[in-house]
Amino acid sequence: MLVSFASYHLWLDWRDFKDWLACQFIDYEPGIHISQVQMQSGLTGINTLRIYNPIKQGFDQDPEGAFIREWVPELRHLPDDLIHEPWKLPASEQSRTGCQLGQDYPYPIVDHKEAVKYARARFSELRKTDPYWDSARDVLRKHGSRKSQESRNRPKRPRKRSDGQTELPLASE
Questions:
Q1: Is position 86 within any domain?
Q2: pTM of the model
Q3: Are residues 122 and 67 in the same domain?
Q4: Is 162 domain-assigned?
Q5: Who's near 150: CB < 8 A, 6+ residues apart?
Q6: DSSP, res 20
Q7: Are both 67 and 27 inside the same structural domain?
Q8: Quick one: where's region Disordered (predicted)?
Q9: What is the extent of the structural domain holding 80?
Q10: Across the chain, where does the E strand assignment appear?
Q11: Per-residue confidence of the chain (173 residues) as pLDDT tens digits?
Q12: Same structural domain for residues 67 and 96?
């Protein structure tokens, strides 16, 4: 979600934050993480854009705001229904909760709906160009599956085990 926000809401170049992000991981592996940052930033041309809504993700993943209450003490006393949208806190409640917007906690730096609208429009225009599709084909040719579509959908043959029994592959194999 962090990469999505940085890329589609703030329009930061993935190369500008990849190293900082790498330092945040305890299991950083360049071969995995760099390609994931590129994919999440919409650079591969072969994946669906993943523009996450940080507010929705907050409510879905942490409805009571336990993480926010732990790590953002300014918001600790906000009610659950506003913990992921503190800018909606009425002025009358700000002093009671100890969170004066613009003073104790900043106003939003970007409007999610406008950012998503802009990102989708930009990528829609980009996807109408030949260089975009040329690049996407190159990525797919280099990194995509080598199996044909037909062979990926073909059921696997039962295998004979060394004891003569037939082994049927599970559906997930």
A1: yes
A2: 0.69
A3: yes
A4: no
A5: none
A6: H
A7: no
A8: 134-173
A9: 63-128
A10: 159-160, 166-167
A11: 888 898 889 989 989 999 999 999 889 888 888 888 888 887 776 667 788 899 999 999 999 999 999 999 999 999 999 999 999 999 999 999 999 999 999 999 999 999 999 988 988 887 787 777 777 777 777 766 666 666 555 555 556 667 766 666 665 55
A12: yes
